[in-house]
Amino acid sequence: MFMKSMRSANGRNAVRCPLRLLSVVLAVLFAVAGCGGGHPHSGSRAVDPKAPPEAFPQDPTATIQGDWPSPGTGHDPADVVALGARLAYAYDQDDDTGITAFRLDNGDAAWHTTVPEGSSVAQAPRLTGNTVIGAFATTKNGSGTYADRHGISVAAMEADTGKTLWTREIATDSVSDNTAGTAVPHVVGADAQHVLVASYEQGFSETPPLSVLLDTRTGRVIWTDTDFKGVDLEESVAVGIRDDGDLAGKSTSDGRQQWSRDLRLGEIRTMDPGPGLTFADGTAAGGTLLIDAATGTTRLNSGDTSLLDCHYDGWNTTICAGADGSGNAVVWAVDVRTSHVLWRLPDPSANRVAPEITSAWHGVVYAQADQAMTLDTRTGKDLRTNTGPISPTMANDGYGLVYDDSDRTIDVYRAAGRSVSD
């Protein structure tokens, strides 16, 4: 089934890739809520009782600018930054390649940590607890008859200070006759226990993918797999695609394959829609699937509806947008614990249309209808129908972020009524 994409003023487009070389839409979708593993436990409402922002000012509070990788066609800040409460973390590709932390209140750099011999980077670093983790392609120049040596450097840094906690070097030359230098690694997901890193070339390639699972606390390599493109990390299972196109789950403890499925989806996209679930959609007949990451079973099949993108709210709901069989825009809200659909839009009986979804956070959906607005994640009811001039594509309890494609900057909006100390 050919994907019918929805565009929003601040939204993101789907990225489609060949069956053997998937594209992970990053973010994970959700750098704060991850779009790639490391989710807070669903239902954790008591962690921070502060209500999420529902209105933003006319002008940005700060602007963040850095030499980060391109965010892709969706121009989503989650593709380039991991969002903390007061800092945003991004790769820096200048002469001192590494990670930079930016202050949300003024856009200034709080710290920068260089990774020696680090070069190519992709997507965004990952934030888990008080640790920021990045993956870097490295090259050690050869001489004479000795060829260059390619590898991956995975580094963990203290989120507040940038202090390096550990660095792990992983050789990639043995993957395929020294051709792995063109592959770019990225952190698929990270949680308190594990970090999943994948490295592969974009497009068709004879070079196999490489996935590596590491211990978050020490950087110890738990397992590596050269026939596995990691796309999602959950507590007990890493999900990825085998060279034969099957979707598979590997144990995070010992790397043993827990399950494998031929989804028969043709060209396929995957993403992480929330804890415990993996999203899969393709060009063949059939709907979008939400798959139980631990068992490989289908938890939800959308039928003739193609869901384009899902935004996990950090609690227990993911908001998915797409198009029905007639090409009309739709929005579904799904409980990540039960996979039950809580509500759908449009609702002709109530004369309600489907808005364009830009993000979701802690019970609030940010969207665009005739203007920026918010909805309740659990009920779908309109909360505010005029939240200001912007609908953020990334949010936390105090700020909303929007990517400015013309300047390659990120505009930061402090929530209306919030002070820097909040």
TrEMBL record:
InterPro entries: PQQ_rpt_dom, Quinoprotein_ADH-like_sf, WD40/YVTN_repeat-like_dom_sf. Residues 93-260 form the Pyrrolo-quinoline quinone repeat domain. PROSITE patterns: PROKAR_LIPOPROTEIN (PS51257). It comes from Streptosporangium nondiastaticum. This is Pyrrolo-quinoline quinone repeat domain-containing protein. It comes from the Bacteria. It holds the Pfam family PQQ_2. Residues 40-77 are annotated as: Disordered.
